[in-house]
Specification:
Number of strands: 22
Catalytic activity: N(6)-[(R)-dihydrolipoyl]-L-lysyl-[protein] + NAD(+) = N(6)-[(R)-lipoyl]-L-lysyl-[protein] + NADH + H(+)
CATH class of the largest domain: Alpha Beta
Enzyme class: oxidoreductase
Pfam families: Pyr_redox_2 (PF07992), Pyr_redox_dim (PF02852)
Protein name: Dihydrolipoyl dehydrogenase
Number of helices: 12
Oligomer: single chain
Number of domains: 3
Helix content: 25-40%
CATH topology of the largest domain: FAD/NAD(P)-binding domain
GO molecular function, one term: flavin adenine dinucleotide binding
Length: 478
C-alpha cells in the first residue's frame, strides 16, 4: 500500500530538515528523504552545511586560530607558550565529532517532531508522487499533497584542475588534510577559498590564492573589501587577482598550476590545491520528465517569491533556487514554505539576509553597499568607527577593522551595515534586527549599549552617520 503524506521533503540539509520539522509542528504528516551517507555508511542528516560545509569549516577555523594565538598572540598578554605544536589528525577528529553530534541531533529532532525519515534518493514524478530509491536499489513510491525540493548544491568542477581528492581537492577534501601542506594553492578568493586558505595558513602553510576576477570580494562594500585584502595579505595569504587558471599537472605528489595574469603565462607548484570556484544546484535525476517542474537557464529550479514552482503544491528552497547559497536563507525559506502550506501568509525579506566570511577578523554585511546605492542614485550619509578606538577590542588585542553604517541622506533610514573586525557576524545581526524594524541611524545612536563591548562600535558608527560620534573625531560636513 502506497504511503501518503501531507508534505514530502527531498533533502535533509538546513533547508529541508527545517522545513520538515516546521511542517510537522504545524500538524502536517511529513516525510523527509535523504541519501547522504557518512564514512560509516550510515545516513547522515544536515546536508552540506553540517557534514562538509559551515560547521566543520568553523571547527577548523577555531582550532587553527587558537594555535595561531598560542604562537603569535599570547606574549602580549604575558603568557609564555614555548614548543606549541599542532596535531592535525586530532584537530580533524574533533571536527568530525562535532559533525556527528549535530547530525545525530537532527535525527533526534525528527523523532521528537514525528517526521518520517525515508532513506534513499528522492525523485519527483508526475502528480506529486515521489520515488525513493534505497541504497540497495529497491524502490518505493510515496504520495504527497505537497512536495518541497531541497536537494542542495555541490562544488563546481573546472576542467583545468580536475579534482582527485588527493593532490587536487574540493572544499570537502580540504577539510580532511591529515598534515599541513608546505605549499597550498587555492583557486577562488570567495568565502570558501578565504576561509580554508586561512585555516592552513595559520598552521604554517604557504598559501597562494588565485582569483580570476580583477576585483576582490565584489559582493562586499568596497571599503570593507579593500581593508580585508590588506589584512589578509598581512596575515600571509598571497592573493593574486586577475589570475585565470588554464591547466594543471600532477607530478610526484605535487601539482603544477598554469595560469595567466597581467604578467602573462605563469606556473606555480603546490603540494595541495583547493578548487573553490563556487557551487552548482543538485538537480541530477531529481525531476522526472513529466514532473512539470521547470529549470531556469542556469539549472536552478524556477520559483516565485514564495518558493512555489510551476506545479501547484510543489515548492523548492535553498541552493536549488535563486538567491544566495546560504544555510540561513535555506532554513527561513523552509519555514516560510511550511507555513504557507499550512495556510498562513508567511513571507521572507530577501533584502535583509546577512552574509558572513569567517576569516579573522570576520567580514559581514547586511543590506546594500555604498557603491550599489550610489549606482542607484541614492544620496547617503556614512558613519564608520574603527575597532582601534574600542576599549573592548583593545582589551582583547583584536583591533583590526571597523564598523560602517550607511543611511539614506533624506530619511536617515539605515540601508546597510558592514563590518570587518571582531564579532562582525554578531554586530551585523544587530544591524539586521534594527533594519527589519525600519531603524534610523538616529534610533541606533539613541539606544544604550553596554560598556565595554564590541557592540559600541556599531553605536558609534551610527552616531558618526550624523557627525555625532563621541569616541572619534567627526568629519566636518562640507
Amino acid at each position: 500500500m502506497t504511503q501518503k503524506f501531507d508534505v514530502v521533503v527531498i533533502g535533509a540539509g538546513p533547508g529541508g530538515y527545517v522545513a520538515a520539522i516546521k511542517a510537522a509542528q504545524l500538524g502536517l504528516k511529513t516525510a523527509c528523504i535523504e541519501k547522504y551517507q557518512d564514512k560509516e555508511g550510515k545516513i547522515a542528516l544536515g546536508g552540506t552545511c553540517l557534514n562538509v560545509g559551515c560547521i566543520p569549516s568553523k571547527a577548523l577555523l577555531d582550532s587553527s586560530y587558537k594555535y595561531h594565538e598560542a604562537h603569535a598572540g599570547f606574549a602580549i598578554h604575558g603568557i609564555e607558550a614555548k614548543g606549541v605544536t599542532i596535531d592535525v589528525p586530532a584537530m580533524v577528529a574533533r571536527k568530525n565529532g562535532i559533525v556527528k553530534n549535530l547530525t545525530g541531533g537532527v535525527s533526534t529532532l525528527f523523532k521528537a517532531n514525528g517526521v518520517t525519515l525515508l532513506e534513499g534518493h528522492g525523485k519527483l514524478l508526475a502528480n506529486k508522487q515521489v520515488e525513493v530509491t534505497a541504497g540497495d536499489g529497491t524502490t518505493q513510491v510515496v504520495e504527497a499533497t505537497n512536495v518541497i525540493l531541497a536537494s542542495g548544491s555541490t562544488p563546481v568542477d573546472i576542467p583545468p584542475a580536475p579534482v582527485n581528492q588527493d593532490t587536487i581537492v574540493d572544499s570537502t577534501g580540504a577539510l580532511e588534510f591529515q598534515a599541513v601542506p608546505k605549499k597550498l594553492g587555492v583557486i577562488g578568493a570567495g568565502v570558501i577559498g578565504l576561509e580554508l586558505g586561512s585555516v592552513w595558513a595559520r598552521l604554517g602553510a604557504e598559501v597562494t590564492v588565485l582569483e580570476a576576477l580583477e576585483k576582490f570580494l565584489p559582493a562586499a562594500d568596497d571599503q570593507v573589501a579593500k581593508e580585508a585584502l590588506k589584512i589578509l595579505t598581512k596575515q600571509g595569504l598571497k592573493i593574486r587577482l586577475g589570475a585565470r587558471v588554464t591547466g594543471s599537472e600532477v607530478k610526484k605528489k605535487q601539482v603544477n598550476v598554469n595560469f595567466t595574469d597581467a604578467d602573462g603565462e605563469q606556473t606555480l607548484t603546490f603540494d595541495k590545491l583547493i578548487v573553490s570556484v563556487g557551487r552548482r544546484p543538485v538537480t541530477t535525476d531529481l525531476l522526472a520528465a513529466d514532473s512539470g517542474v521547470n529549470l531556469d537557464e542556469r539549472g536552478f529550479i524556477f520559483v516565485d517569491d514564495y518558493c512555489a514552482t510551476s506545479v501547484p503544491g510543489v515548492y523548492a528552497i535553498g541552493d536549488v533556487v535563486r538567491g544566495a547559497m546560504l544555510a540561513h536563507k535555506a532554513s527561513e525559506e523552509g519555514v516560510m514554505v511550511a507555513e504557507r502550506i499550512a495556510g498562513h501568509k508567511a513571507q521572507m525579506n530577501y533584502d535583509l539576509i546577512p552574509s558572513v566570511i569567517y576569516t579573522h577578523p570576520e567580514i559581514a554585511w547586511v543590506g546594500k553597499t555604498e557603491q550599489v546605492l550610489k549606482a542607484e542614485g541614492v544620496a547617503v550619509n556614512v558613519g564608520t568607527f574603527p575597532f582601534a578606538a574600542s576599549g573592548r577590542a583593545m582589551a582583547a588585542n583584536d583591533t583590526a577593522g571597523f564598523v560602517k553604517v550607511i543611511a539614506d541622506a533624506k530619511t536617515d533610514r539605515v540601508l546597510g551595515v558592514h563590518v570587518i573586525g571582531p564579532a562582525a557576524a554578531e554586530l551585523v545581526q544587530q544591524g539586521a534586527i534594527g533594519m527589519e524594524f525600519g531603524t534610523s541611524a538616529e534610533d541606533l545612536g539613541m539606544m544604550v549599549f553596554s560598556h565595554p563591548t564590541m557592540s559600541e562600535a556599531l553605536h558609534e558608527a551610527a552616531l558618526a552617520v550624523n557627525g555625532q560620534a563621541i569616541h572619534i573625531a567627526n568629519r566636518k560636513k562640507r
